[in-house]
Every structure is written in structure tokens, then in C-alpha cells.
Amino acid sequence: MTPQQTSLRRLTALGDPVQPLAALSDFHADVFDAVLWDHDLDRVAELTAAAVGAPVAIVVPHLQIAHVAPRADRALVAAIARHVGDRMRGRPAKVPEGVLAEAPIARRGEPLGAILMLSGSSADIARRRAALDFLHVAATATLTRVAAIELRAAVEHDLHGALLSQLRDGETLDPQLLAQRALRLGCDLAEGAVALCVEPAQGQQRSVALTIAQELPGALVEHAGERLFALLPLDGGARSLERVRELVQRLQPFGVAGASRHCAAVGELGQALEEAELVLDVVALSDASIDADRVMSGTYRLLFRLLATHPGEVSALYEGTVAALVRYDEHHRTDLVATLETYLELNGNMNATAARIYAHRHTVAYRLDRIRELSGLDPADGEDRERLGLGLKAHRLLSRDRAAA
């Protein structure tokens, strides 16, 4: 029997009380063959659309799956996906115009998505009830496919995590074998990578992982406690680094992120992961004026390397600049450090500093005098101001270690 004959038989069966069981049995065999032979859900949608004689949409929000057969306008696909997504989140959901029937995709009573029959040239209300049998079979087949996708993702996640955990634990791995392992997981490290560390907000881990996968395919991702680590493969070009910055910006609604420098050498990726976590800690411990992009470059980057190789030098820089101010603030509950940070950020403009911290200009002048007395450095002097700025950066880096202790 040709595909056209099969489709005609099923369409006829929808209105014929004698043939439905045979047609449904044929459909069941075809749609599960498609799933078991590892076809994507586009094929399931096509088979179902042919069986019911109308366009069909398959939507599984948590996997970002939205297939419509025959192919439909993007706006319609988006409206259907939004409708099902809102339903999954328990939000009020207006049924899009043209939806004739719907079958849930559910696992142990938990809704995961839906299959929807849409209005079409051969679809009408009278045949909608018969079509539901086909939609329910397709929903069961889709659930089987979803389970396979989730299992594959879990296995890949475990393999990603094993590799990243070894790097984060400081294990010495042969660079060539490391690159080969990563390539088998879809991550090409031929041109190196940037490491990423993210601390997602409550309930946002999945959103962070999906955003990384969409923006930089091939990334290796691992969940470690409340944090998420990733290696982002790059091609060595400036555009790739710009994409990392854009990714960090896109992740802001979901949590705090820190990225390392671009490591061209595979053997340095363990250090890159440590550096990314350090950047995250600095951003998290600092005020709102310190963002990840500033910490990812410039003087901070030099201090990171110094902290890794000669931590005593960073401590000495801190002690010789702002340590006395930090201790004074802790003992007297004052704001000398915060005032200094704002003053330096505003390029020594006292009036702007007073406006930013909601204090009188004379108050700012008094605090700057105290800073001069305690540190021995003059915030109004260019060279001393530069040293104080370095001291504040050292303070942020060392605050991270003190907080961890």
C-alpha cells in the first residue's frame, strides 16, 4: 500500500465506524517505528498530520520543542508554544485561534507538553473526536522520544561533568587526550576556550544551561552544587570573545556570571575554570558598579595571575594601601572604603561623589582627609590614586578568600 493510499484510508476511517481500529493500529506501528528508529519529532508530527488530515503541532516546553506539520507561519508556531508553555506553568492560557483538539503529553500525571490538531482544509468539528485517538497515540510516542532525549542529555551531562570535575580538581590530564575526549562530546578545543562560572538565581539552572547551549553550541556544562561551570569553545577570533561577553550579558536575568580569559592552551583550562570562579566571586562580593566585563579585563586580570603565583604580593599591596581603611570601617562602622570607591569611579569629582552617596560635600572632604591620614596616600594625587585603586581591587580579591574561609 502506498503512503497516499495509507493516508486516504486513515482519513476515511475518521468518519467510518468500521475501519478506525485498523487505521489506528497502522498509525501506532508507523509512529513508534519513527521514534524507535531515532527520527526527530518532526516525523511524528508529519505522520500524525497525515493520519488526522489536518495540521498538527507537538510542543514540549522544557526541551524547547515546537514542531508543526505541515510547516506553519513562525507567528503561529510561537503562539502555540506560548499557549502550551503558559499551561505548563499554571498560568492563564488563551487557546490560539484554529486549535480544534488537544491531547496532553504527560508522565506519571505530570504534564510535559501537548499535541494539538489545528484547523485545515480537511478538518472539521465532526471528525475531531475520532482524531483524538490518533493524538493520544502520538502523545505516547512523543513521550517515548522525550524520555530518550532526556536520557541522552543525562548521559552527556555526566560525561561533561566528569571531565570538568577532573579539571577543577587539578588533575593532570594529557592535553591531547583531553582534547579528544572533549571532541567526542561535541566540544572542539583546537583553538582553546573560555571558562564560565555562573551562580543561577533560585530555579534558574535549566534556563542558564539552555541559554549557554543556544548561544555557544558545543559548550561543556557541569552543575556543581549551587553553581554551574562551562567550557566555551572558541575559534580564536575577536568575534568569538564578543559572543562570550554577549552571553554573560544574556545570563544577567538568571544569575551572576564570571568568565576567564581566552585560554589557547588546552593544558591551562583547569586554571581557566578557577579564574572564572574567582571573577564570579569578585562580582558577587562587590557593589553594583563592578560588573563582569570590567573584571574580565585589564588590571584585574593581572592581579588574578599574581594571586595565583605570588599571593603574598597581593596581600602586601592590600596592606600598603587600603587595609587600614577597611579595619577602621569595621571598628567604627564608617564608610571610608565605599566613599573612596565612588570617588575613584567618578575620577576624583567631589561634588559628583557627594551626590552619588547622598552626603554633603564637606562630609566627603572630611572622609578623604581621614583616608589620607590612615593610608598615607592622597586620593587627589594621580599616582597615589592609582595605588589606592589597585589596593581596592586587591581588597576585593582577598575578600573572596576571606568569605570562603
Describe the structure.
A hairpin with a 2-residue loop joins strand 3 and strand 4 (110-118). It is built from 17 helices and eight strands. The protein starts with a helix and ends with a helix. With 405 residues, it is an alpha+beta fold. Mean pLDDT is 79; it is low at 1-19. It folds into three domains: 3-151, Beta-Lactamase (2-Layer Sandwich), CATH 3.30.450; 172-294, 2-Layer Sandwich (Alpha-Beta Plaits), CATH 3.30.70.270; 312-404, Arc Repressor Mutant, subunit A (Orthogonal Bundle), CATH 1.10.10.2840. The relative contact order is 0.06. The strands form two sheets. Strands 2-1-4-3 form a four-stranded antiparallel sheet, with helices on both faces. A four-stranded antiparallel sheet has the order 6-7-5-8.
Q: Which descriptors apply to this entry?
A:
405 residues; alpha+beta; Beta-Lactamase; Alpha-Beta Plaits; Arc Repressor Mutant, subunit A; 3 domains; four-stranded antiparallel sheet; 8 strands; 59% helix; elongated; disordered N terminus
Q: What does the secondary structure layout of this molecule look like, with pairings?
A:
Elements: H1 3-13, H2 20-36, H3 41-52, E1 56-60, E2 65-69, H4 74-88, E3 99-107, E4 110-118, H5 128-168, H6 175-184, E5 193-200, H7 205-215, E6 220-224, E7 227-233, H8 238-251, E8 255-263, H9 269-285, H10 292-295, H11 299-309, H12 311-319, H13 323-332, H14 336-345, H15 350-356, H16 361-375, H17 382-404
Antiparallel strand pairs: 1-2, 1-4, 3-4, 5-7, 5-8, 6-7
Protein name: Helix-turn-helix domain-containing protein
Domain PucR C-terminal helix-turn-helix: 336-394
Domain CdaR GGDEF-like: 174-282
